[in-house]
Amino acid sequence: MIILANSLATPAIGTIFWTTFIFLILMIVLRVFAWKPILSAVKAREESIRSSLEAADEARKDMERLKADNEAIIDEARHERDILMKEARTAKDRLMAEARQQAKTEADKIIVKAREEIEREKRAALTQFREQVVSLSVSIAEKILRNKLSFDNQHEKLINDLLDEADLSKN
Amino acid sequence: MRDRGHYSFLWPAMIVIALALNTPINGSEVPPDRGHGQDAPRHQEEKPDETGFDATPFIMDHIGDSHEWHLFTTPDGKHVSIPLPVIVWTKERGLSIFSSAKLSHSHIHKGYMIPEEGELKGSIVMVDNDGIVIPDKFILDLSVTKTVTAMMVSALILIWLFVTMARSYARYGISPPKGIQGFLEPVVLFIRDDIALPNIGKQKYEQFMPYLLTVFFFILINNLMGLIPIAPGGANVTGNIAVTMVLALFTFFVTQISGNRNYWRHIFNTPGIPFWLKPIMIPVELIGLFSKPFALMVRLFANITAGHIIILSLVSLIFIFGSLVIAPVSVFLVLFMNLLEMLVAFIQAYVFTLLSALFIGLAVQEEH
Amino acid sequence: MTTGTFAVVGAAIAVIGAALGIGHIGGKAMEAIARQPEAAGKIQMAMIISAALIEGATLFAIVVALISL
């Protein structure tokens, strides 16, 4: 037991030599053919993930900006439409007012014309009526003359009354 | 409740003490002629047990190093092993390289032999023409032993694994990891993000990554290979003090070489203490300098060796009791220990790497 | 009783000390994690480091015991 324990706890020169040798070779080989490519690939991947995330962030920001732009454009369009609508409405109102005005003028003109016509007709009617009154008076006078002129005063008075009457109706 | 929780662990310790004092605590259940188990060796010299099974040489054979790789023993007692190259050098005879098969069963070849018992059991000794051992000769034994072979196999596995992994990066570019890559990448990233980065710092960690990764995976694969009972596993590589010593020395040298002015100032001119204390602090700091790698070396060695000893002892129980009834219990316990040792394999690789990173980090940190 | 016996007893005592120490670290770490789950990673690392340091001291004792076997 003593020997065995001692041999276990005593490093053998050959093993030390070979371990150093194998470990050094292993480290060099792995360093060149494994650790360098692996670590650089992992780093490259992390880098690419980082840059992808950044790109995604950038894209998101772009999208937001684009969206904001779109909204601005839509707003502007809406505004423009509103203006156009308002203009159209005013134009319509103006047109309607103009049309109404024109119609009114036309109607007035017609009324004036109608009134003149009526006046003319009335005047014609009056003239005709006067002629009839004259002829009626003449006929009345004839009748009276034909009757006997017995009472002088009465005759005169009658004639005057008739003439007055005729003057009044003439006006 | 609290007290019981505090002292219940004393029971196993007491059992250990009882075993050490050779008090048969369950003597009534164990036949006295078979109850020697692990404490048998002390009786070996006094009273050789002919019928019983002596676990100690069996366990020591398995956890120790050897010049051949023993595979199995046939029922008629024939050992089947892979011979390994023996490389020895002496001042008198120069360099000789030959197969260890020529030295098996105490054969003498080119004036060398491997005694099968005695003080020098298992190591190569020089013999004279009459076959008498020449004592106290310096023999530089650079043989490719079982440990070295297992280490080479592990190194090849590591190279295969990680070169394959690196290739798949070259093939698939930066796309998400697949297959072997997906399995190993999180571990690599764990070492980078949870061991190297927090302990060494952002500016300097990159130059130490190859060392930390190599040391982690080297320890891990050797720990795990050691748990596989059949060749090329089963060798006690990280439970070999020479191997852990070399690894600890690597950490030591990496730390000292990368140590900056601030680090050395802390050792030889510790700031913030009275001047008369400074000469006292220097030896303390120097002891700390060497005790750190020493602890690294012993920790890994003791943990892995202890794991192997426990598993082998549990297997030995079957033969110690010489009964088939004990086999299921033993197998269950071995299974449990194997799982525990798998956890230990990871933890020890992690702890070694973490402490290496910590020491390196202390050596490279700037004044603050 | 041989020196080997004393060595084993010494190793056992060292193990008791380490078990107490590491047990305390583990318990306190659990309490700390329960109190601040978000700092679990840092606490775990500190826990493992301190446990490793205690273990180192214990291993010295065990190695001393093993050598004197």
Structural overview:
The complex is a heterotrimer of chains A (171), B (368) and C (69). Chain A is mostly helical and 171 residues long. Chain A has one domain (31-170). Chain A is built from 3 helices and no strands. Chain A has helices at 2-9, 13-146, 152-170. The termini of chain A are far apart. Chain B is mainly alpha-helical and 368 residues long. Chain B has 2 domains: 85-141, no CATH class; 146-364, no CATH class. Helices cover 57% and strands 9% of the residues of chain B. Chain B contains 11 helices and 8 strands. Chain B has helices at residues 2-7, 10-20, 41-44, 55-63, 146-172, 179-200, 205-227, 241-258, 261-268, 278-321, 326-364; strands at 68-73, 79-83, 85-90, 94-99, 112-113, 125-127, 133-134, 140-141. Chain B has a 3-stranded antiparallel beta sheet, with no helix packed on it. In chain B, strands 5-6-7 form a 3-stranded antiparallel beta sheet, with no helix packed on it. Chain B starts with a helix and ends with a helix. With 69 residues, chain C is an all-alpha fold. Chain C contains 2 helices and no strands. In chain C, α1 packs antiparallel against α2. Chain C is elongated. The two termini of chain C are 12 Å apart. Chains A and B meet through α1 and α2 of A and α4, β8, α5, α6 and α7 of B.
